[in-house]
Amino acid sequence: SVFAILRSQKMNLKHNLRPMLELESGSNDPMAYMLTIVLIQLTTSSEIGVSQVLGSFAIQFIVGAATGYFLGKLAILMLNRLNIDNQALYPILLLSFVFFIFSITDLLKGNGYLAVYIAGMMVGNNKIMYRKEIYTVMDGLTWLVQIIMFLCLGLLVNPHEMLEVAAVALLIGIFMIFIGRPLSVFLCLLPFGKKITFKSRLFVSWVGLRGAVPIIFATYPVVAEVPGADIIFNIVFFITIVSLVIQGTTVSRAARILGLSTPLEKTGNEFGIELPEEIGSSLHDMTITQEILDKADTLKDMNLPKGTLVMIVKRDNEYLIPNGTLKLHLGDKLLLISENAEREALI
User: Fold this and answer.
1) Among residues 293, 274, 272, which one has the least CA distance to residue 283?
2) Which of 30, 49, 165, 255 suits a disulfide with 113, CB 3.0-4.6 Å?
3) Packed helices 17-44 and 112-124: angle between N→C axes, nearest 10 degrees
């Protein structure tokens, strides 16, 4: 939710706050899942002790992390080694792995959410075949699932019941936003000393945005028929709305006020063309400035690094096939292809 807001504002974060927030968002869900299950068990059964709870936490973390790591490696290996004629099947293969990893981890009494998260991080940070096609399909599926999820969650809510818990839920939400979250963040970041600035701690304290996950976990006690579960669900739903209204609308403003915002780095090129990673070459664009024209006004006079070629020239709305004698104009955009080792020299 936080990154979606920042992307919409074309904003990035300083001081490596992005990976810290990504780590938190990825680790929160498995922990929330385990806490939910344990609390339900403690409420519905008197036979569970502290030692069993701690043992369950240890098993879920260890098995979940190990299964996610090894099956993530297996997913990368299969995506790169299997030679499937139809490239549309690669996203289906990866989606099958998602269900397989979650299921096998759950059967081994591990945490399926943690396993899928770790496997996903591994696949996302390694070179795989048809990455662009896989990303496009997965992004579409993500939006479809989110739409279905919010529609279903909305059907579970009765507005008049929300009003009944509004006072209590508002107090809890304000406590979590202004006291609980900042206190926990500052305590957790104490060991890092001056490595994390005070402004960074303030920002992390403010971006504890609640999304659909707590609402989904709030349905667990309802299904388990825990006494008062309906009230819990309505309170959680109301707190999520409060969080989205108060924190969601002020995330980008908080980053600017604290001086932690930075322009979002440009990705891809303005021509909308991409190359598979396995080719070992990259595409990027450059704009002709007056400084460049003063040194060279034709392609053959430009001092491009060895291994770099100009593929196409865009002038206003016209696309030109380049040759050495092409006269360059101010504002022309050049699409260049170069070996990955040569790109840094060009930049």
Assistant:
1) 274
2) 30
3) 160
The 3-state secondary structure of 175-236, one letter per residue: HHHHHHHHHHHHHHCHHHHHHCCHHHHHHHHHCCCCCHHHHHHHHHHHHCCCCCHHHHHHHH
Pick from 158, 89, 85, 74: nearest CA to 123: 74
What is the torsion angle, in degrees rounded to the nearest 10, for the CA atoms of residue 263, residue 267, residue 272 and residue 275?
170
Rounded to two decimals, the pTM is 0.72
Q: What is the DSSP letter of 298?
A: B
Q: Pull the structure tokens for residue 252.
A: 């980008």
What's the pLDDT tens digit per position in 10-61? Answer: 778 888 888 888 788 777 888 888 888 888 888 887 677 778 888 888 898 8
Question: CB of 281 within 8 A of CB of 275?
Answer: yes
Q: How far apart are CA 287 and CA 293, in angstroms?
A: 11
Task: Find the length of the chain.
Answer: 347
User: Among the residues of the chain, which ranges form H helices?
Assistant: 2-8, 17-44, 50-81, 89-107, 112-124, 131-155, 159-164, 166-175, 181-188, 198-206, 212-223, 229-243, 251-257, 290-295, 340-346
